[in-house]
Amino acid sequence: DEINGGGGALLYDLDGNGTEELITLYLSDFTPKGAPNPIPYFVCDVYTTIDGEAVPLMEKREVRPYHSVAETYGKVQVLRFEGQIYLCIMSSWGDVEAYEESWHLYTLKEGQPVLEKEAFYSYENFANDEATRKDLYTIDGEEVDSAAYEALLESFETLETLDGYNEEYSFESLLIRPAS
Fold first, then answer.
1. Exposure pattern of 107-146 as b/e (b: 16+ CB <10 Å)?
2. HSE of 92 in the Cβ direction (CA atoms, 13 Å)?
3. Do 27 and 42 form a contact (C-beta atoms < 8 A)?
4. Residue 27 CB: number of other CB atoms within 10 A?
5. pLDDT digit string, tens, across residues 52-108
6. Each residue of 134-155: pLDDT tens digit?
7. What pTM, to 2 d.p., does this model score?
8. How far is 140 from 123, CA to CA, in rounded Å?
């Protein structure tokens, strides 16, 4: 179900213990130091139930900010990778001069989210010249080539997705939002 102008919620048993976790993706405001107005961010919460009570496992984990100068995207997914179920938080932002993309894969161990795998891709092309463009791919902190990075992403089996794309907020709309 879509909530709060974008995002949504889903139920999925992330740790295979028979209890479905509630995974939400929604807009939340953040006011950077010195900024006149809050900036909307997509954030993720994960809850489970213990003895009939909702218990937060992850709260307000940033998925994707509305970046002021770039195209941005983010999503929360339940993935299968190498036979294991993961909660994946993916975000990206960029333009023709620079781009960043990150994938964070979490499992639940003893009721707590544990970061198990990270993958990053970035490039810089400030001169807008392919000859000087710098690309960097890493998996778990180790630099890899583009083929290894793409192979990792292609090995993920997507089971569920909450999409953090929302056209409601453009940079121009953020500029004219009244301060609270």
1. bbeeeebeeebebbbbeebeeeeeeeeeeebbbeeeebee
2. 16
3. yes
4. 18
5. 888 999 888 877 655 544 566 778 899 999 999 999 998 887 776 778 889 999 999
6. 889 999 999 999 999 999 999 9
7. 0.77
8. 18
